[in-house]
Amino acid sequence: MSLSKSDIKLIKSLHQKKFRNEYRQFIVEGEKCVNELLHSDYEIIHLYHTHEWENKSNNIQKTPVSINELQRLSTLNTANKVLALVKQKDTTFIKYVDEKISLCLYDIKDPGNLGTIIRVADWFGIKNIYLSENSVEVYNPKCVQASMGSLFRVNCRYGAVENIFSDAKKNQSKVVAATLEGINLYQYRKPEKTLLVMGSESHGLSPDILNLCDEQITIPSYGQAESLNVAIATGIICAEWMKG
Amino acid sequence: MSLSKSDIKLIKSLHQKKFRNEYRQFIVEGEKCVNELLHSDYEIIHLYHTHEWENKSNNIQKTPVSINELQRLSTLNTANKVLALVKQKDTTFIKYVDEKISLCLYDIKDPGNLGTIIRVADWFGIKNIYLSENSVEVYNPKCVQASMGSLFRVNCRYGAVENIFSDAKKNQSKVVAATLEGINLYQYRKPEKTLLVMGSESHGLSPDILNLCDEQITIPSYGQAESLNVAIATGIICAEWMKG
User: For the segment A61-76, what is each residue's pLDDT rounded down to a tens digit?
Assistant: First the structure.
């Protein structure tokens, strides 16, 4: 079996959001990410790999390709051994899952930030991330890459934040927003169950959204930067929440 | 005064490391970053701006340009009102400056990570970052962009880590490495003065480097991700160090 023109066309189309949405498929690249994928419950449609790739998959359809062919399919500057064609999961918000802490991301636009936040969640054992409908999609290749395989373990759901918040509150979770004018993170008494809300890179959280939140917290600053990167702020708050 | 071919050639050459090194100049883009630059002690050689830009500079040479001209000069997908041509500062490590906490970055390769770490340092009032000689350069446009202007307030110096470590120790600083097998960050008794060492994205810190460090600390994990992004880890540790 070798690489056909229609394979190339399909995979290259998945570099674009439009076709990812249409086909409900996405691509995963590189040894590390594909190995994590193989241990997940995602459905792999096909693998394209160079002879260098150490095959750890059984009954999955595969096509061996040259490094030049792989580069043609790749979204990376330097293609890395293997590329998987994968079925998307349904990411529609249905119901809030009760946990010690979950994340809600409001209009996050940078796929690298989203992937990094998913990796943070996975490090701290946070299982659920809720996203506003205008947030960047989790199946964006840059997000998949930045998550370093954590995407396959963290449940990501998109919905109207009003619904997510009210569902969280019904589940006795406090809706806590990270802002620049909240209670000092280290003086704040953490609730038993929290939905931590992080705002967009450029606009943070609007007054309307903040009105729906129960409380606001802030990471104290000792310097002059106007703000922290959203993934950094998420990491710092999650670390403080999880340490006990 | 209008945009000349030689202006375009010079500025486009500064998209590349080779010419940044040769000319000892770099570019700063966008309203936010240029405004921070104007408040810094960096020497601005020239400003290129569209009519939209609200001029806050006095005796600096400027050229008004069209948005299309600005886009030709830009490293961004969407050029943003203004671009500055700036003199680099000398970034050679000379001596260790005594502070409560400083950062040492070992072979960091991703300019976005470096810029984000500089922003973290600035948020927490950390004044000095030392970098191994093989680390990415601070004047890389992606680093400048990710630092969101913090680059102009944080002192970055490149040198041999052996020299940086020994100089830090002479100044009674403990050299503390962030690794995956150190003391739990929250159980660790923080020294009075610390040089915090962060390893590269792909290889962390080599045994040789670790041998030169006094201690190792780790951010406790509660999930399954193999590691945290280096900028996230830096943020979490700095937050814990600074909170008192």
Answer: 999 999 999 999 999 9
pLDDT < 70 positions in chain A: 1
B contacts of A143 (beta carbons < 8 Å): none
**CA nearest neighbour of A81 among A27, A120, A31, A43:** A31
Interface check for B101 against chain A (CB to CB < 8 A): the answer is no
Could you tell me which chain A residue has the CA closest to the CA of B223?
A125
Q: What is the mean pLDDT of chain B?
A: 96
Q: Long-range contact list for A22-26, CB < 8 A, 24+ apart?
A: A24/A87, A24/A88, A25/A85, A25/A86, A25/A87, A25/A88, A26/A86, A26/A88, A26/A139, A26/A141, A26/A144
Q: Is B229 helix (H, G, I), strand (E, B) or coil?
A: coil
Q: Is A183 in the B-facing interface, judged by CB distances under 8 Å?
A: no
Residue A1, pLDDT score: 62
CA-based nearest residue to A39, from B155, B45, B226, B77: B226
pTM over 0.90: yes
Q: Which two tokens stand for residue A70?
A: 């792989």
Residue from the list B228, B236, B242 with its beta carbon closest to the beta carbon of A222 = B242
Q: Which of A232, A241, A243 is the best residue to mutate to test the B interface, defined by the most B CB atoms within 10 Å of its own CB?
A: A232
Q: Does B122 touch chain A (CB under 8 A)?
A: yes
Query: What pLDDT score does B55 carry?
Result: 79
CB pairs under 8 A between A and B: 108
Closest CA to A119 of B155, B229, B53: B229
